[in-house]
Each structure stands twice: as structure tokens, then as C-alpha cells.
Amino acid sequence: MNQAIVRVENVVKTFGQTVRALDDVSLEFEPGIVYGLLGPNGAGKTTLIRVLTTLLKADSGYAEVAGIDVRKDPVAARNHIGLAGQFAAVDDYLTGRENVEMVGRLYNLSADESKRRAADLLKRIHLDDAADRTVRTYSGGMRRRLDLAASLVGRPSVLFLDEPTTGIDPQSRLDLWDMIRDLIAAGTTVLLTTQYLDEADQLANRIAVIDRGKLIAQGTGDELKDRMGGSVIELHVADEDRTRALEAMSAISDDVTFEGTRKAIRLPAPEGSQTLLKVVRRLDETGVLAQDVALHKPTLDDVFLTLTGRGAAEAEAERESDKKPGRRRRPERSAV
Amino acid sequence: MTTATHTARHTRISPGHAVKDIAVITRRNLLRNIRLPQLLIFATVQPVMFLLLFNYVFGGAIGGAIPPIAQGEYINWLLPGLLIQVAAFGAGQTALGLTEDLSKGVIDRFRSLPMARSAVLAGRTLSDVIRNGFVIGLMVMIGFLMGFRYQTNFVSFLAGLAVAMVFSYSLSWIMATIGLAVKNPEAAQSAVFLPVFPLVFASSVFVPTDTMPAWLQGFAVNQPITVTVNALRGLMLGREALADFKPGMTANQLAEAVANAPTVEGQVLLSLGWAIAIMIVFVPLSIRVYRKTVS
After folding, report:
1. Is this prediction's ipTM beyond 0.85?
2. Using CA atoms, how far apart are residues B181 and B162, in angstroms rounded to an integer?
3. Do A83 and B108 touch (CB under 8 A)?
4. Beta strands in A149-242 (DSSP E)
5. Domains identified in chain A and CATH numbers
6. Cβ–Cβ of A1/B36 closer than 8 Å?
């Protein structure tokens, strides 16, 4: 009958009068995949994770993990989940090993089993050398890895990773990606939230884009990028050259846009660097001196621009002002 | 995988698991004291300083105003009082520990685990009372070195320490509620002193209450800290310590004052009554606030 390991149906969660953190969210996915939830700060990613991990009760709607209604039977649900939150929730004054063993004990493993699990996990996250040092001597990346290990002690059916790499250095980020990939290879089902398109792209089999508490797109990373037409070129010119530059660019593409906040002219680059060369030549012929020309792969910003007509940073800023009363609702966007 | 079997049932945590969870959390909290000895050192230095300062600075001036059962030694009068002050201040750690766990996301992790809901608060209050017991034990040893001698018997003396621990435990639940309500570690730092300071100073901790103005006495005599300090003094020094003593009393007047004094048993029962009343209010209240705070 029901093959989905996570099922969310019409979940609504509001904070106060005005903020709809989750606005009728529905999603489901099957075991063994990594489901990426992509969106800017304040989009509702963490709220959804908190509902699914029994930390927060939804106002309405239904959510289940591993076939268990998280609202009706939170204790049973907790046996099936692992959570690594936005901050490494590890104990500074315990050793790495003690941290993991403690969580094992709280998952009702025996003392021996907790020890074995901890030793095994610490090896897998390459912390076996540092295992017996107190965590306060750990770097930020090590703490995140330890937090990941702690979330795995209970052999969860679904692992929830809330922005696992936010705020850590690039090298630690790559290390963490490797570890998450190992987990995936071992068959762990993961729900991961991120603000970075490349992270979702690297790790997730399926990506859902969330904005203002609504899922606005779902698909594989490639599908999402296809919808944005692959790479884009962005260029900046002096204000007086803008009209001429826009005219010149429309000879190359039918889809030239001008983004007001950053004063950027944008156009799709289906042929990548070939298109870039065309743009530069064309500008040269028109006698417009570009202040800046760049070819880049789609980012979260581009996803947002394509899907919502506004950038991710803009969405975040709006979200902030939404917290004040008198917010006006955006017209409904049809589900994709 | 069938959903029907799950939705009907509500999984509960067995008492055995709850006890194990409380033990795990208690151990974790206590380890912190061992790994960060500064915590314990400062928790101990401050009350010891109080003991030394009050005894040697005020001892001479106050010594004559305390009942003769103290043998003219202020330390005999002061130590039982200071033990309760330490118990009250030490209970404030419960608020600080909880706010710290809240702000670091540790409570979120605990709440996502299949562990007993009560274990976080029960483990916290339990580890704090153990820690306070350690500080109180150290105070008693230093007190003995400074000349403290109980005037009753050893069992009675130990009973006094037990009353102090029960009282300290009940205060931890008030502090847990305060900590969860203010959430922020810095705010908790000052919030915990709000109830503690008036209770400690408008009490018989440092001086007999009968030297206070009448309007204050009504409060001072009945409030839980005075009652508990009286219970400790009664158990450690005898009923005479509870008498309405005035310097220059004749032996007969003193005997009459002792006969009119509250009984030791009465004060012990009152103190335990306060502890129970505090817990009846604050255990459910703190659990309520805990549930609200984190969801």
C-alpha cells in the first residue's frame, strides 16, 4: 500500500497572527533517497523539519514518518528518526565518544551496544583519534561531524539534516558532503535542508524549492536547472549605456531581463562560453564598455528569480518585514 | 508497512526507561562539573568566603545576641543558616544549566530522542542537588575547622543536612521554571537572584528575626528559608536555638522562652511542608513551561 517513508499532507503552521511558516505543504518520498529542501532563510524549511521530528505541532494537516503519525505517536516516531540541527548540539564538556554513547543510551541501546555503535561511528566520521578529547577542543567542522554521528546512533529510518554545512569552512563542507554521500550509499534516507543550490544538487536525488511556507517547485536538480535554461550571463553597464546594451543583447537572446535591484542585465547562456564570446563581441561592436560580464551556473538566486520573479536575498528581506503586522499576501502561485 | 496498527496506539515510555534516562542525563550534567572544575571551585569559594567574612567580621558584634546554646560561638549559629543560603543560591544553577542547554540546541536533540520527557528536568534537578550536596559537605568540613560543633547528636546533625538537601531540591524546581521562562542565560543569571535575595536576607540566616521591625518579622518568621534554617538549628543545636532570646535573660526567663519556642519537630515538618508545597506547584508548572518553551 503505502510506500512513502515521509508523507506530509496539507500541513499548516502559523506563528502569531501573520507569519504562515508552513502554508499548506504536501510532499512525500520513498525510502533510500535524499530529499533536498531548498530555500532562503525564513522560507519554512526548519519549521517543516521541526514538525517531522516531533519538536513542533502543526496547526493542521497530517505528517508521518516511517508510517507513524508524528502527532499521534511522537514517541514511536522518535525511534525512527535522527536529527542534526542547525547548531551542533553536542556537549562541550564531554568527550566525542561520551557524546555519542550518551545519545545511544537515550535511544535505549544497552551500554555495550552504545559503546560499539559509538566506536564504529567515530571511525566512520574520522574522529577516532580525537574521540577521547573533550568537544570544546574540536573545530567547527569536527563538531558538525560529531553531531552527525550522534544523529545516526539510533540507526534512523529517516535522517533529518537541517542546514548541515551552514557556517563551516569550505574544506569541512566538502568532508561533510563526503560523509553524507557515504550514508546515502549505505541506504539511509535523508531529508536535508539547505540554502545552497550546489549542495542540494550534489547530495539530493530530488529537490523541492520552498518559499514563504509553500513548495513552489519539485524535481531533480537537472530538471530544475533545465527549467532555468542552464547557465546565465550577467553584465553591468553604465546607466547611460543601458538602453543600447539591452538592444544589443536582444539580438542574441529573446529572454533578456534587467534586474533593477542589482542593475544587472541577464540572459540565458545555452551554449555557455560560446554565448559569452558572442556577448562580448556584440558589446564591442556596439561600442558599449561593460563594467562587468560574468557567466555563471544557476544559483539559488536564479532558481528564485525564475520561479518567483525575485531573488533569494529579496525573499529573505521580505520575510523579515513579514514579521511586522500588516503584511500583504502575494497572489497564489500554481503548484508546479 | 501498515499505518493502522500505529495510529491507534500511543507508545509510552516505561518507568524503567525513564529511570535510566534520568540517570543518563544526571551523569551528563555531573560530568560537566568534573570537566570544568572552575564551576565547582567558584560555587564553593563564594560560600566559604561568606562563612569566613560573616564569622570573623560580624561574629564579635552578633555573638552576644544569639542563644547561649551556641556557646557564644557565632559559627555555631551561622553555619546552619549559611548552609541554607548555599542551598538557595546553588539551586539557581538549575536555571542557568537549562538556559544554556536551550540556547545550544541540546534540548532539541533530547526532545527528538525516544527518551522520557521528564528526564531532562528530573536529571537537571537531581544533578544540581548532588552538586549542592557536595558544596554543603565542603562547607560543613570548613565549618568544623572553624570551630563549629553540633550540640545535639550525630544522627540529629545528619537529619539537619537531609532537610537542607530536600529544601534545596524543591528550590531547584522554582529555578527550573524561571530558567525556562526567561530562556536566555544572561537574563537567567540575574532573574534567579530576584526571589533568593529577599528570602535569604529577610530570614534568620544571619541574625535572629526578633531584631527586625515587626512588619518584617511577620514575613521573616514564616517564610520557607527561616523555617528551614530554624529546623537545621533545632536539629544541630537543640530547641533552645529557636527560643526568643534576649541578652541578659535570667536562667528562668530563658527556660520560659525555650518552653514557648517552636518545637524542632514542628519546624522540620514546616520546612518539609514548604518543600512539598513548592514542588506541588513548581514541578507541574516547570513541565508545562518546558513543553511550551521548546515547541
Report:
1. no
2. 29
3. yes
4. 158-162, 189-194, 206-211, 214-219, 232-237
5. 6-225 (3.40.50.300), 231-296 (3.30.70.100)
6. no
